[in-house]
Specification:
Elements (H helix, E strand, L loop, with lengths): L2 H57 L3 H8 L3 H41 L4 H18 L3 H55 L4 H35 L10 H17 L3 H50 L1
Helix pairs in contact: 1-3, 1-4, 1-5, 5-6, 5-8, 6-7, 7-8
Length: 314
Amino acid sequence: MMLNDVSKRISEVNEKRGWKIKLEKDLVEVERKLAQEKEHFQVLEKRFAKEKLDVEKLEKLSLRAVFATILGSREEQMDKERQEMLTVQMQYQQAKKLVESLVADQTYLKQQLSALNSLDAEYAQLLTKKEELIKSSDSAVTKELLALSEKIGAANLTIKELDEAIRAGQQVLAGLDEVNDALSKAENWGTWDMLGGGMLSTMIKHDHMDTAKDAANQVQLDMQRFQRELADVQREIAIDVELSGSERFLDFFMDGLMMDWIVQSHINNSQDQARQAHLKVRDLVQSLQKRKRMTAQDLDLLQQKRVRILSQEN
């Protein structure tokens, strides 16, 4: 096996080892988040069971229901308990989806890592072989080729990580577009509703708000994946725009939908928050795409230089 072949294989293996390190880091973060969200889910599960029991007690002919009826406040109390149950139920369902999504991410990452288990052993063997070949051919050209191989491998890994981050960011943008679209439709029907549009306009408005809520749920999951991918590339890339404000938008948006989702002014506020989040994520994706183009140009120059050296050697 020639030194050039060994160096090329080392570059390939080293690129995969870099990817393995990234996956290991992602798995640690996913498992940390999963433990946190499981605990949160269990709290919500208990709260939901309690709120559901409160509603059932009022619906039945219990002592509490009798007193509420005598005092003339049973219907009001029922509405209040149902609203509290609905709020907790929505939080519970979202927490359940998040846990399921994190479990799926955990399984995927473990499968990917399992396929890369033999890399470290192969890498050690290749280094030993490379050392032997270098000792028998210690020239300036050899050293330059080795340095180029390492740089090419690093550039390929960076591009791969950038691609993952860009895809994750584009997924968030698609979700935010869906949120904005549903909110715009809800706003239009809400205006008609306030002008006396009747039961049909109210139902259609609520349907669009449900669509916006479901889309926002998915954006929360996609945003977390984007943040993990972003953390991998920020080690080498200086990005000015912070993502944390976009994530806080989702908390505001979801809380608002639960507490006051039929109020027209709140629809407008949610639209503003969604647009701001879209702008921030779009800026991040554009920064990543710019960095990918620059890295691809650097890689092309490195590969051209390698070909020139090898051609001269022939």
